[in-house]
Amino acid sequence: MDYLVQLASDPAAWAAFVTLVVMEVVLGIDNLLFISILTNKLPEADRPRARQIGIGLALIMRLALLGTIAWIVQLTRPLFTAFGHGFSWRDLILIAGGLFLVWKATSEIHHSVDPEETPDVFDSRAATMTFGAAIVQILMLDIVFSIDSILTAVGMTDDLPIMVAAVIIAVAVMLFAANPVADFIHKNPTVVMLALGFLLMIGMTLIADGFGFHVPKGYIYAAMAFSAGVEALNMLARNARRKSAAGGGAPPSH
Fold first, then answer.
1. CA separation, residue 48 to residues 25, 34, 54, 104 (Å)
2. b/e map of 61-75 (b: 16 or more CB within 10 Å)?
3. What is the pLDDT of residues 121-174, one digit of tens each?
4. Is residue 235 part of a domain?
5. Based on the number of CB atoms within 10 Å of its own CB, is 110 exposed (0-12), middle (13-18) or buried (19 or more)?
């Protein structure tokens, strides 16, 4: 109780908490995009359950990693040196996760643009993945994103209760947003390609980070926000044309 009173009266602790919550929510966007795209390939009845399991695993993994902070910190210690860079377990995990994301996004893009490939990634009527395979792939990426998330938290504060609270709130936001985000992607097929492009960019960023070339996340999310804004304008234009056509077509020319 004394700790909670002290925490509530400490502006620095509140600032760290709010900042960490925002950071964790932003970092969770990558995880949520992957889960949304992957679960949309399942039969419709299985999608909500797969999203809940995937996000639940993300929460369990993050809390478990917070309980082993001493071990997590050791993941940043170099194991060997190559190409002038000391590779740690964190680097190897980021590279592996980045390669998996690049492969996954590229294969999905290939399925969507190759006219000989069936079923189409945009065809929601056909499931192209089993429930177990989806959970395994979500779990693999949960590991990568969880380690990145917890290392970010450790770098911002050394107060474990603040980190736990921030992670729980961030995952709760992911859980609340999972179905609306997945449904939005499902109803707007062009957004699927945009999201796959995001995952491709995130994968390349993880690989670069693993090799010691750190790209500020602000640049990544600014590019994502700009692209999403352009796509939103395209969607508004398409809707306007659709309403115009439904209302009797284009006005007569003079």
1. 20, 14, 10, 21
2. bbbebbeebeebeeb
3. 444 444 456 888 888 888 888 887 777 777 777 666 667 777 788 888 888 888
4. yes
5. exposed
Q: In angstroms, rounded to a whole number, what is the distance separating the alpha carbons of residues 197 and 104?
A: 11
Higher-confidence position of 16 and 94:
94
- Could you give the number of structural domains in the chain? 1
Q: 0.90 exceeded by the pTM? A: no
Query: Looking at the domain assignment, is residue 143 inside a domain?
Result: yes
Tell me if 59 is assigned to some domain. yes
In-domain check, residue 247: no
Report which of 65, 59, 66, 64 is spatially closest to residue 31, judged by C-alpha positions: 59
Which of 183, 163, 219, 159 is CA-nearest to residue 3? 159
Strand-pair partners of 121 = none
Residue with tokens 């006219």: 115
Q: Considering only CA atoms, which of 199, 153, 190 is closest in space to residue 31?
A: 199
Residue pointed to by tokens 């709760």: 172
Instruction: Tell me 43's DSSP state.
Output: -
3-state secondary structure (DSSP) of residue 170: helix
For tokens 């990568």, the residue is 144
Which structural domain range is residue 154 located in? 2-241
Contact 113/17 with Cβ under 8 angstroms? Answer: no
Contact 110, 194 (CB under 8 A): no
